[in-house]
Structure to design on (259 residues):
DNA sequence: AATTGCCCCAACCGCGTTCCG
DNA sequence: ACGGAACGCGGTTGGGGCAAT
């Protein structure tokens, strides 16, 4: 039987199970210690860093705090509608690969996106009659209730998926295209994503100008039907994005519009 | 003003992957 | 090639804030 945490979010004993290590909410003093240490010594070596930084925390906790909160590049505040739209699109493409999704949205962390998805977007999709997991319409309105109550846990599902399918196969199923015969690799997928070039400077200028740079990013993802989508995946280089966010997809379309 | 219930999100854990001796 | 350590990711939890009663 595990001892409950005193302050505790999460469950059970701390990962490092060392007596005397602090858990729970970070204080501003701890934040200062961590931030100044990382600025001085750089990221990495999380295991040993708490001691060297004078923190009574485990390395994991320090890493998480830095990554999700203290890092200078972390953008605080409300998720903009355009960012939301981008998250939806990327989730349809990538599934619950939060870190990959976060990697395409400057300033947002995987944890933040995951939280936003679980608290806002999945509910929003359900309301619209869309299965948040597959992005396909729910066949039976009662399915949503069944999904909530009788569905296996996410971890069970994840295990089941892992045992049966490659991510690409899962995506193929999600898209619902039985005839799809595309065996693209993670590299290709990554290449496709990389082709959606984002100028981070544009984002950093967000506060200085009144434009919403995310709009630029979103408009880099032209609306697609399933067939077009797969064409784009298979031919990642087929999409280019100019500085203004206009899209020339090499399929004879030029777009600067939203969905 | 007090209580209750709900929602959000920071922080936790377990596990898989990568690194390194 | 192997095993342990370190790291990174995704799922889950529950404290705290806020709205409703």
């Amino acid at each position: 039987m595990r001892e409950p945490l005193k302050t505790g979010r999460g469950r059970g004993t701390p990962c490092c199970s060392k007596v005397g290590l602090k858990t729970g909410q970070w204080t501003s003093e701890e934040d200062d210690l961590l931030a100044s240490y990382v600025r001085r010594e750089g990221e990495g070596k999380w295991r040993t860093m708490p001691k060297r930084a004078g923190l009574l925390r485990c390395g994991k906790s320090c890493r998480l705090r830095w990554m999700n909160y203290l890092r200078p590049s972390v953008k605080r505040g409300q998720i903009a509608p355009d960012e939301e739209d981008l998250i939806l699109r990327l989730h349809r493409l990538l599934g619950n690969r939060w870190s990959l999704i976060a990697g395409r949205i400057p300033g947002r962390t995987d944890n933040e996106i995951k939280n936003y998805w679980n608290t806002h977007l999945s509910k929003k999709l359900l309301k619209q009659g869309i299965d948040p997991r597959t992005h396909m319409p729910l066949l039976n309105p009662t399915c949503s209730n069944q999904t909530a109550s009788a569905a296996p846990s996410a971890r069970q599902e994840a295990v089941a998926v892992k045992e049966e399918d490659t991510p690409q196969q899962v995506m193929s199923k999600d898209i619902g295209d039985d005839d799809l015969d595309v065996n693209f690799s993670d590299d290709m997928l990554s290449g496709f994503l990389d082709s959606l070039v984002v100028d981070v400077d544009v984002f950093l200028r967000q506060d200085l100008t009144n434009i919403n740079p995310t709009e630029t990013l979103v408009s880099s993802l032209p609306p697609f039907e399933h067939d077009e989508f797969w064409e784009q995946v298979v031919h990642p280089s087929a999409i280019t994005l100019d500085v203004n966010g206009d899209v020339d997809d090499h399929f004879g379309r030029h777009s600067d519009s939203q969905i």
Observations:
- Residues 5, 7-11, 24-25, 44-47, 59-60, 63, 67, 96-99, 110-111, 114, 118, 153-155, 158 of chain A lie near DNA strand C (CB under 10 Å from a C1').
- The longest helix of chain A spans residues 110-127.
- DSSP finds 13 helices and three strands in chain A.
